[in-house]
Amino acid sequence: MKTYFSKLLLLLAFSVILTACKKDDDASENDDRSENLLGLGQSAEDLLSDDIYKTLVVEIVYSNGFRPEQETIDNLRTFLNQRVNKPGGVQIVETVISPPEGAPYTTQEIRDIESTHRTRYTNGDEIAVYVFFANGNASGDTASSVTLGTAYRNTSVVIYQETLQSLQVDRFLVEATTLRHEFGHLFGLINILDDDIHPTNHEDPDSNKHCVVEDCLMYFASTIPSTLPNPTAADIPTLDPLCIADLQAKGGK
Ligand SMILES: [Zn+2]
Ligand SMILES: [Zn+2]
């Protein structure tokens, strides 16, 4: 059983890489949402700096039974306050929806759910991020390989919460790590738009858009529970100095 389970988690890594880092250039819906229909990484500077947007609003959307733990929400707020430069602050708002149908979800279905249920868009001096905690799994999942989360647009993330809840792991640790990791991709890590200005190239040659530093949050395996040091006492992986330098180069802290 134990062997089986660690094999499952190992395969998870590859799935997270392939899906979390896919660029998406679907920008054809209606106008006042246009700021939120850009490709992954394209709002990194707007999210991190205070040049244009003074406040960051994170809308967490879920149906009953799929809310992340309160500790996870509080932890995300702490992480964002550490990294983004927003004098107006970081607000996390929650939207409870009736359970969408159609799981397992394709990326198109995830986009359709966003289009129906997202209520907060970038507006004035507020930039908005949408995070859907899905009541189902990803369509590409197999018996041995599942996806935990994907950042699929400039301000859009899906966390496959049903999948996450089915794993026999520390819920808070995996929720918080997966969320922080996907925000790292929204912030442009690693080199998502080939504009990484840090002189040391720290993109992992073996894992596209992930960090070469093994204990970094953006290392490809950082969202794999079995690779965390000690599940009962482990901390969430932090960003290494190279990743932090990239965020600072784009106006972050
Ligand atoms: Zn990733
Ligand atoms: Zn790193």
Automatic annotation (TrEMBL):
Gene3D superfamilies: Collagenase (Catalytic Domain). PROSITE patterns: PROKAR_LIPOPROTEIN. Keywords: Hydrolase, Metalloprotease, Protease, Signal. One of its GO terms (biological process) is proteolysis. Coiled coil: none annotated. Residues 1-20 form the signal peptide. GO terms for molecular function: metallopeptidase activity. SUPFAM superfamilies: Metalloproteases ('zincins'), catalytic domain. This is Membrane metalloprotease. It comes from Rasiella rasia.
